[in-house]
Amino acid sequence: MKALLETLIRGLGNGSVYALLALGFVIIYKATRVISFAQPALMLAGAVAVSHLAEVTGFHTAVLLAGLLIAGVALAVERIAIRPMVGRPVFVVAIITLGVDIVVRVVVNAFIGRDVRQVGDPWGFDQVALGPLVVQQRWLAMLAVTAVLVGLLFAFFRYTRYGLAMRAAAFDQETALAQGVSVGMVFALSWGLAGFLAAVAGMFVGTGQGIEQGTWVIALKALPAIIVGGLDSLGGAVAGGLVVGVVESLFQSYQGEYAPWLGQNFAVVTPYVVMLVVLLVRPYGLFGTREVERV
């Protein structure tokens, strides 16, 4: 039981990072109806920014500055590459975001170099005792920071003027425009929020193990998370990220013992297996909106 609980905490820690990335995907999708494939590059850029800024300032200050910096980069991407594509087919805009991802990663890789780069986090692989459990501090930090950010994000959408405007535009853009909501502002704000969340997620991805040029692949695990939770559900993004993280952790710990016939490193593909299972049962995700088309 002790090993199982420790495995679950590790899964929830990793899952909280996937949740932050998934929230970025969902926020942009709800505002623009486009899945942004630029999130992996923004995550990597955030991690690199933290790494460089931590060398000249405190770690916590570096995380905040990096989040704001990547939010600014995301705003620039939206204004330069995405805004002119408004009205074009969704598929075309999605391909544009894929191109943005490649360009940003090429630039960021020049700052990473060939070696693994540390982000300067204070946790590393240090452990802490929680009663009989021994877990790494970074898992607890991931959970705590994600809980705070999710709480602030939901409060933003519920109680602030800009949050309500984003909700209105996500529900019906034409009606929101008629009521005086700036849809362009909503698009920009959605990208800025997604960039900030990606930067924080990138920092956590690099804790302990550092970052390298291939680290961006980790962000792809957020795609199964948004499918599991539902493309248009913020709560579903959080739940999907946690589910993916826990399932992955369980397979890492127990698959070799109970299902060795699945082969080595099967845990790597478990997020996509979970996604396929959910798609078979609920194609719109666990918390997504079921679309009904009349013919």
UniProtKB/TrEMBL annotation:
UniProt membrane topology term: Multi-pass membrane protein
Has the keyword Membrane been applied to this entry? Answer: yes
Instruction: State the UniProt keywords alphabetically.
Output: Amino-acid transport, Cell membrane, Membrane, Transmembrane, Transmembrane helix, Transport
Where it mainly occurs, coarsely classed, is membrane
Q: Does the keyword Cell membrane apply?
A: yes
Pfam hit, one: BPD_transp_2
**What is its subcellular localisation?**
Cell membrane
InterPro entries cross-referenced by the UniProt entry: ABC_transp_permease, BCAA_transport_permease
Residues passing through the membrane, by range: 12-29, 59-77, 89-112, 139-159, 180-205, 225-247, 259-281
The Swiss-Prot or TrEMBL record describes its family as follows:
Belongs to the binding-protein-dependent transport system permease family. LivHM subfamily.
Q: What is the name of this protein?
A: Branched-chain amino acid ABC transporter permease
Organism the protein comes from: Nonomuraea indica
